[in-house]
Amino acid sequence: MELMGPVHYMGANGSGSITKLASNQLWAIHATAMGEALVMAVKSGVDLSRAWEALKIGASESWCMHHDAPSVFAGHYDPSFTLDLCQKDLTLIVEACDDAGTLAPATRLVAG
After folding, report:
1. Where are the domains positioned within the chain?
2. Do 110 and 32 contact (CB within 8 A), yes or no?
3. Taking CA 77 as the corner, what is the angle to CA 74 and CA 83, rounded to the nearest 5 degrees?
4. pLDDT score for 43
């Protein structure tokens, strides 16, 4: 397992799955927000590359801004995580939020 990256013990049975769902929850929200922000900037007349350079630092910095945006700009869309898989995870995430008694309004908007 350590060949794939750091191993973190998360606790009782199922805690690792919940942690993975939380990671995917954050990614889905970040990717949605990033797309909306960049589209708004470009449609408002800001050059895409300049907007991205400014937004990938400071408060808006994220793994998504550094990893996903350059791939999209280059026309490379990773087919390993399809929209069907993303929707499946979002459904599981909303179920986990329901089980935990959390409102998660941003997640529910992204899950649509």
Report:
1. 15-111
2. yes
3. 150
4. 96
**Assessment of whether the complete model's pTM goes beyond 0.85:** no
pLDDT score, position 36: 92
The burial of 100, by beta-carbon neighbours within 10 Å (0-12 exposed, 13-18 middle, 19 or more buried), is given as exposed
Q: From residue 101, give the alpha-carbon distance in Å to each of 78, 90, 95.
A: 33, 16, 10
CA–CA dist 109, 79 (Å, integer): 24
**CATH code 1.10.1040.10 for 15-111:** yes
Say if residue 4 is exposed, middle or buried (CB neighbours under 10 Å; 0-12, 13-18, 19+): exposed
DSSP letter at 58?
G
